[in-house]
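Lab notebook: predicted structure, single chain.

Context: the supervisor wants predicted structures on file for every construct in the current expression panel, including those that have not yet been purified. This is the next one on the list. No modifications to the sequence; it matches the entry in the shared construct table.
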Amino acid sequence: MRFAWAVALVAVLHAAEAEVKVVERPAVLYSSVSPKLRIQTENPVFNGVFPNDIALKFTPNLKSTSYNLSVVSDNVLSLSLVKGKKWGNPSTSEGMTLYLTDLSIRGANQINDAKQVAQIIPTPTIQRHEDNVIYTTGTSKLVINGTNFRQKGLKLMFNPPLEQDTDYLVSVKSSTMMVLTRTSGAKWRSEPGPLKLARIDTGGGMLRIDPTYGGITVAEVQADLGAHGVTVESNSRQVLYQSSADLTILGEGFNTDSNTLRFHNGLRGKGVNYTTMEHTPTQLKLHLGDSSKWRANPANLPGPLVLLAVDAGAGFVPVGPTEAKKGRVVATVFEDPVVAHSTQAIFQSHTHEVWITGTGFTRGQYNTELNFFPPIDVGADVSVVVYNRTHIKLTLLEGKKWINDVSEPGTALKIKGIDTGAGAKMVDVQIALVKPDADDHESGVTVKRSTQSMYQTAAIKKLVIEGAGFTRDTTLTFLPALTKDEDYTQQFDSDSKLTLSLKKQKKWRFEGGSLLVKEIDVGDNNGAIPVGSGGQGIQVASILQDPDIEESERIIFESHTRRLVVRGSGFSLEGTELTLNPTKRSSYEIESLEQTEIVFKLNEGSKWAEVDEGKFVHIYVQKIDTGAGEVIMDGDGVVIAKVESDIDDNHCDDSCEWAIDGVCDDGSSKGRFWYDDDYGGFYGYDDDYYGYGYDYYYGDDEFLAPVCDEGTDCTDCGGPPTSEQKVECDNSCQWANDGFCDDTRTSGLCDLGTDCHDCGPVSNSNYSNWDDDGWWDDDDSYWEVDDSMNYGTGRSEHTVSGGAGAGGVFMVMLESLVYVVGALICGGGTYVALKWYKGQGDLPYVLAPTSDPSTEMPRRGASSSVPITPDVHYT
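Prediction complete. Output recorded below exactly as produced.
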């Protein structure tokens, strides 16, 4: 019986051993210099186990001679790398994963599956570059060469100090090269001298570089030269077409003999694309080559011509912040306008519209103006709507004619001049041949042309047909087709007027456009009579798409937000009006209008709504009118914005140098794709028509940082997020969700507030003080924290009885069962003697106090143990 109990206990113990779990929290280790690797289990399986009892196997293979193993606690092992050995040999800078495949204690494997225990990355090296001369502010780029660079987790520490993302932006171009871009207003050094890279972190922790000399010199910083003071004046008001001959650039500090310019789109001087005809201290005059254009991509025009840098004799000096590729706008370039020749035949008054095709047409901020021959009065005789850069629609107004006197069968209608925004250009292009209208039918039955506007379905108006010779039995043939008594009902008012009413669930047209009557049958012996000239029919209504408003709770501020974007469909380019509540119509103007988007601009001194601090007010669209009458929305209307008080965030202003330019420059815009180089160069490198390399801004595609601080371009961006949107903490720390607080409140392994799950919010911490990351050590000159295990920072002692945690309690229970069986055999005295012998009685033991690794200062003067060559420094 006793033997059966013992066998059962052994089986239970083996089952417990099989359930041992390794905590998979892979540390990032440098292949040759990271000194320690920690392996942690959830169960206290190392209690009473000696290092010689433990055998480990890894994939890729890591020999036991490469490390020294020690038992740190009952569930933590520490592996120390032997000098001259490596954790592994990763083939790329991204590294390799180290798996633990076997954890044996006294010959018995404790794990069933391979566990990730480390990410091995190659050790970075830095190349010394003492002869690299840069200027305090005159140099925008710094290239650092070396090996094993990787963007992820990259951090640098310079001497003198430079703050990453504040003083410079860094981009890894390859494993052997990184490029630093100086931010606007920053300096490489406050005074001339060497710039040294003191530490580098590519993901495995901060490594010291040549600490004896304070780092390795990557550049020699010299004072700015006089020619580094060149400035350029923004001049977006200077307008020119792509092929306009001359351009003037204004500024100060230009060389009177020669200046080299770097444009955003890669234009090259010295006769390649342009020639500089005049150099003065305050202006440059450029003349465009015959086969060149100021900007070559017409799809992105009108657009700015951006000058990035000027070399007045001391190297290129950026004239705008290089981190956002935002130089100075020296002109606004328009596409060369072209009108396509057409021989389309139209009739004097029966043809209701004419389409003009070509390129370079503008609308909105810039209006396209046309000069006709014979003369046509735009606004009185025709309406002009520019749909896009290639199409313009001319609509003949009611009672008007394209040409009053058509003496010949085909009189040419021409455009003699066009101005799309950069000045009038003379052209002589035929757009149509005008013919006389056909005579009315001999019966006297006619249909009068009408331009009345109707919505597709909205029953605001009824369709009125006017003409002559109508009867009660009149039947109309429409284009697109409509069926009497199925799509509409018809009321006979008189022999000159019919009134049509649309039936429910029907539409006048399935899309917007003109509704034509092609034939009319009044019930006499004449049958169906053609209407209009040439069998084309005649317009009786202009059908507008049913307008629709997209619901949105975009957060805006009372007055800080200057623009409000409303999206939807069916907006008319000829004019759309919305009725807002509670915003008054006098408080805003329509800045731009598209078929799917309207942008409202708040007038100076006005507010979108009155809002109390800490509260919000919704803006509703209650009515919309796109030209066929007001459409009333259901209920309170459609929500288009959520207005919050200006004082909810008091740092939104227009202090950015590029504020109020129509482009969001502080990075806070989320709802629109701005056609600006701040956010990816929509008119940038795709505009390099000439195919030249752009070595000055090599690799700048990655540098898309906002040009101004958040909240400093309030008018264009709408202001920063409100306080209630801010996150007090997050889990961006790579060791988040592991049961231990890893931010600056303990080990400092991660930034404050980045291990929210384990530490709790900054204002309401809920973490355990056990510092599990003491294994990050500084046993050599590379590291800044040590390997001490700190049980309970802030407590004088920590008493342990039989193990810690739930796993420890479980093991104590099993052990007690063994002793109970032994008591049945040997008696209670033997049990007490055994417990006294093993030191696990009622006598508590106290761990020796350890130093707090977060307060340990880095050791100064320690030298690197890695050999240094004259040109390459190994970290």
